[in-house]
Amino acid sequence: MSDLRAPEHQVAGHRAAPDKLGPLVDGAGLFYKPLQALDRGEQELAFYTAFSAHPDVPPRIRDAFFPRFHGTRLLPTAASPGESHPHLILDDILKGLAAPSVTDIKIGACTWPPRAPEPYVEKCLAKDRGSTSVLLGFRVSGVMVSDPSGVVWRPDRSELKGTDIPGVRRMLRRYVSSVGGEDCALAAAVYGGEGGVLAQLRELKAWFEVQTLFHFYSASVLLSYDANAVTAPGGAPRVKLVDFAHVVESEGVIDHNFLGGLCSLIKFIDDIVSSDKAPPVQS
Amino acid sequence: MSDLRAPEHQVAGHRAAPDKLGPLVDGAGLFYKPLQALDRGEQELAFYTAFSAHPDVPPRIRDAFFPRFHGTRLLPTAASPGESHPHLILDDILKGLAAPSVTDIKIGACTWPPRAPEPYVEKCLAKDRGSTSVLLGFRVSGVMVSDPSGVVWRPDRSELKGTDIPGVRRMLRRYVSSVGGEDCALAAAVYGGEGGVLAQLRELKAWFEVQTLFHFYSASVLLSYDANAVTAPGGAPRVKLVDFAHVVESEGVIDHNFLGGLCSLIKFIDDIVSSDKAPPVQS
Question: What stretch or stretches form a coiled coil here (chains A, B) (predicted)?
Fold first, then answer.
């Protein structure tokens, strides 16, 4: 157990600390996510269980865009010595990235399942209207840029919360820029190209246009890359879906809320790649 | 003026009556829509004016999917003798259909512009949650089937309001079925095929994936066809957008709300065409 530790590169969600529960990594490729309180942990476990075994999920989609699920495990918690807590065992989606730059983007104008209890709906709706979710179809929940020396940019939650549409555009530009700048030096390598973020998001979109299995309320697209590896073979940026505590079964209907937000993100990122290609304005 | 009359085949919205304002047609191809109360009429006029002249709207999209706009005209009103009321002059999108069958589908999980006043948002949100809009990404606002003898099916508003997802599926099946049945006899001709509803909706979708000019809150897709002409040359079903009182300018973002609902409608109709193609289950 001694090799389990809090991940260094988490950008959103609950963090582990000596006095509270948080995710752990084993350094060998596994990620342990504590089951969340209320019924969220059970719901996320139910999703992973159903999704992993579902015959109608294309294996390519499952392998490319979701962390692999390896069951659950009881782990002792530093917060309550002598007690243990169930954790989901998942692939560590940042495995092998020496200096990961990560963005967590919560997809959908609406983050509340339609049949959720009223107080929860109201809380989510206020957040959706108070952030860019309703206007933009997504919001940035976390962003972090690293270089070999460590994390070089990680805006805090209050900064993210107050972000408007131009602010999101700046963040998604800065995420692929030289340290401290907004030059989009890595836009073509990270967002563009054959194995880039855009190509992967478009493959995911094609599945969302037809899948009527699940509706992914409040789930995120997590982007990651290593600036020193992204132009090398095998260094392609990664696109994964995470956070499934509010996934519900569909009723024979596509997840139009997630799909709409995903299309908005695609257009937004495509605009960054395109403007990056345009020759700089001469003064 | 004497040739103006209330249209026979309206399926949703305000109807003209001796004591109230409603749209009029001239029988020669023009449709007169009274400017709505509050600022809705002015907003719809502003949209048509901006949209008609906008250099970034592809002419093919404007011609295929929108009623042509011919300015405004003051018309005397039966409701208030001696007074006149401004009307939008539009193409009558049902022109030439001897026995039109019409469906009005309000697109989008969310029908309220994000910056609308609070009481209006709350009213719309209640309707969106109380109808299929939130779950399905659209709702049927009106449906009508005609044959040469006249209207043979037109559920009233209370019936439409109480409709759930299976109910919407039944309506969209019945809309292309023999009178009184649910045999989908016309599904291939109306929904399928080269010039059919699905092909047209997909063309519209491709534009919504890239257009960042307008967000079409509370607008409808209006489908129409004539059962006796739909399989003949020139009898292709029609797909038009209508009702623009709540269109707002975009902020460099696609209309993810409309697009998501449109994709949901496409999948829903595609399922009807596909199930219609499958051999019937033998008992």
Answer: none
